Amino acid sequence: MKILKYPEKVLRVKGKEVGFPLTKNIKHLIKEMHITVKKAEGIGLAAPQVGKSLRIVVINLEHLGIPAFTLINPEITFFSKTQTDLEEGCLSIPGVYGIVARPEKIRFTAHNEKGEKVSASADGMLSKVIQHEVDHINGVLIIDKIKKYTQGNEIRERHFNT
Questions:
Q1: In Å, how far are 15, 122, 155 from 51, measured between CA atoms?
Q2: For residue 135, which of 36, 44, 20 has the smallest C-alpha distance?
Q3: Which of the following is catalytic: 8, 17, 87, 133?
Q4: Which one is the CATH code of 9-159: 3.30.365.10, 3.90.45.10, 1.10.530.10, 3.40.50.720?
Q5: What is the pLDDT of residues 32-82, one digit of tens each?
Q6: What is the pTM of this model?
Q7: Quick one: which of 19, 22, 108, 113 has the fewest CB in 10 Å?
């Protein structure tokens, strides 16, 4: 499965809600997204990054002891006032990294692959990854949020006009 690169238009489109029960095509898409993010050595991937304007994200933080999981139609319902800065990159904008300030803690709701509604809290790296991926399904990219570029500033100046 190919990961699309900026400025592909689908990366700027708000994803459509996914209905239940999941179709075979959606189940296959989710499986392929999990394979793709692992092959790319990424920690998260959103459906728009593979050309599908849908509200699906997969998270892969297995290196931190968190099993890989899928969020369907996720919504962040609470953001803490405390923010922390973290360097972020994006599989759809290779070579560009920068400092992004994000709320330290969040609460969110989503559906799992069985269609069950789940609610949970997240902090630290998990919070940051979920926020980054939810941005993707809302058409928002890190180049919209970076407050200081750490790598790739010349790429930004040449290609993004930001």
A1: 10, 27, 23
A2: 44
A3: 133
A4: 3.90.45.10
A5: 999 999 999 999 999 999 999 999 999 999 999 999 999 999 999 999 999
A6: 0.93
A7: 19
